Amino acid sequence: MSAQYLRVAKTFAKAVDDLGLGITVIQENDDFSPPASGQWAEMTMLSHDTDSLGKSGAGDENLGALQISLFDADTGTLQGVLLGLADQLSAEFVHGKEYTLFTDTVYINRSTRNAGRINGGFYQIDLSIEWTCYTDR
């Protein structure tokens, strides 16, 4: 796992935290037991590719996708709450939005909200966010 990957993941974690969603937001591989009721979210970096922008010293273009999965343990009763959270995240991560933490800026290319579904007894909605970040070498 590269330092760039970690910086981008932390940048997204701060952006989501700053939204103040009022739910627990975990990172992939966190030690977490889902609650018996209520909502929570999980952030997972799906991909991260690095392409060179040229010969030595030119820099790199980092492309990736982040998935934010929203879960509701109260299936069938509070799906509107989860839809509201998904709308809030979709409104935040729009094309052209920039986030800077550390020394790099992360640019949002697009976000896609997927259809909700029942998964393992929980109602789940996924939001996929495609991003770009340029780094110096």
Instruction: Characterize the largest beta sheet: strand count, sense, and whether it forms a barrel.
Output: 7 strands, mixed
Number of helices: 2
Which percent range describes the beta-strand content? over 45%
Number-wise, the strands total 7
Principal-axis shape: elongated
Which stretches of 5+ consecutive residues score pLDDT under 50?
none
What portion of residues is helical? Answer: 10-25%
Compute the CA-based radius of gyration. Answer: 16 Å
Q: Helix and strand string, N-terminal first?
A: HEEEHEEEE
Q: Can you give the mean pLDDT?
A: 86
Q: Determine the structural class based on helices, strands and strand pairing.
A: alpha+beta
Oligomer: single chain
Distance between the termini: 17 Å
Report on this model:
This protein has 137 residues and is α+β, with helices and mostly antiparallel strands. It has two helices and seven strands, in the order αβββαββββ. Strands 1, 2, 3, 4, 5, 6 and 7 form a seven-stranded mixed beta sheet that branches. The mean pLDDT is 86.
Highlighted features:
137 residues; alpha+beta; 2 helices; 45% strand
